[in-house]
Amino acid sequence: MLYGILHVVSLVYLTGVVALILGMNEGETPREATRHVLGCWSKILGGLVGLGLVVYVLSLFAGE
Hints:
With about 60 residues, the chain is mainly alpha-helical. It contains two helices and no strands.
């Protein structure tokens, strides 16, 4: 159980770091940069969660 929680925490943390690095170059003002970083973070995190759900559903039909 602990490893699952650690994986989720690292997923959220690492997507935040990647979004921060990608988003800092896009905005000229701090307000625009913050908005862009949050948008990037939500897109990356949402895509990874969606991909995880697809893999989970496909694993249900694997026959094991």
